[in-house]
Amino acid sequence: MTPGTTSPKAKPQPSSGSSGSKSAKTRSKPKYTLTYFDTIGHAQATRYMFALAGVDFDDRRVSEAEWRRIQRTVPLEQLPVLEVEGMGALHQSVCIDRFVAKQLGFYGKTDVEAAQIDQIHTTIAEAGRLVMPFVQNMFATSPSDVQPVAVGLDTEEGVEKLRTHLPRYLNFLNSQVVANETVNGQDAEGVYFVGTSLSLADIYWACAWEIATELDTENTLLEDYPKLFNLAKRVSKLPAIQEYKRQHAEDHP
Ligand SMILES: N[C@@H](CCC(=O)N[C@@H](CS)C(=O)NCC(=O)O)C(=O)O
After folding, report:
1. How far is the CA of 78 from the centre of ligand 1 (A)?
2. Which of 29, 57, 86, 141, by CA, is between 20 and 30 Å from 191?
3. Atom nearest to 94 CA in ligand 1
4. Which domains does the chain have, with CATH numbers?
């Protein structure tokens, strides 16, 4: 897989909210191939955008054995990688997210909205780096996998530690929802992070919430942030996302 050198020719697809209606017979080869492990994580927001837009994509989930075979062929030896027909391959999940958001209409209506979406996306990614060691420790299968933070979110001590570090991120994210609600109000569905429609910011937040909820099952970290909680839950419950999770037997919230 090599980085692309030509401009993408892809046209935005209509956002139908369904997960694709073409029959197997008429379906042509998908234009996008997203390669990642068989888990949620760095690829999930991209997967959800395809599902929400009803755009068929090759959702390539590699096993550990396959990964060992292809690892050296992949930039930075990391997944996810998105291959786009006629363009080549992209890596770095935030870049993949933003590219797909632009292609599928989840990137705001103006440059200002796009910048606000980037700001939220980057903030959530940064907060995620704070949370990830706790997540990894929950799933560590050997002592050598245990991260230096030493305690997982399954302990009171772990939750306390996060409580001291997360608020500045959560306060910022909350302020964005409150500000947007003040300017744009709520539609029948509720409020979004930016503007008046669902964007990458909301989808990425829902993914972060789903991962955190695996560990913080009672959502104690969000108890002071009902607007953030409601937004994440609302997006996570969208029919196209629920259907995608059902197809992949992903039983997180
Ligand atoms: N900055 C990268 C990080 C990606 C990353 O850390 N990927 C992990 C899986 S979540 C990986 O491929 N690890 C290589 C391995 O497990 O051998 C991105 O956002 O795409």
Report:
1. 4
2. 57
3. 19
4. 1-104 (3.40.30.10), 111-237 (1.20.1050.10)
CA of 185 to the centre of ligand 1 (A): 38
* Residues sharing a CB contact under 8 Å with residue 204, sequence separation 6 or more, in sequence order: 45, 97, 120, 121, 124, 125
Q: Is 41 in the pocket of ligand 1 (CB under 6 A)?
A: yes
Cα–Cα dist 149/133, whole Å = 7
Q: What is the pLDDT of residues 201-214, one digit of tens each?
A: 999 999 999 988 87
Distance, CA 22 to ligand 1 centroid (Å)? 32
Closest approach atom of ligand 1 to CA 71: 17
Q: What is the pLDDT of residues 95-151, one digit of tens each?
A: 999 999 999 999 999 999 999 999 999 999 999 887 777 766 666 666 666 655 555
Question: Cα separation of 194 and 120, whole Å?
Answer: 9
pTM: 0.83
Ligand 1 binding pocket includes 35 (Cβ within 6 Å):
no
Question: Can you give the pLDDT at residue 70?
Answer: 95
Cα 162 to ligand 1 centroid, rounded to whole Å: 22
Query: Which sign, positive or negative, has the C-alpha torsion 51, 53, 55, 61?
Result: negative
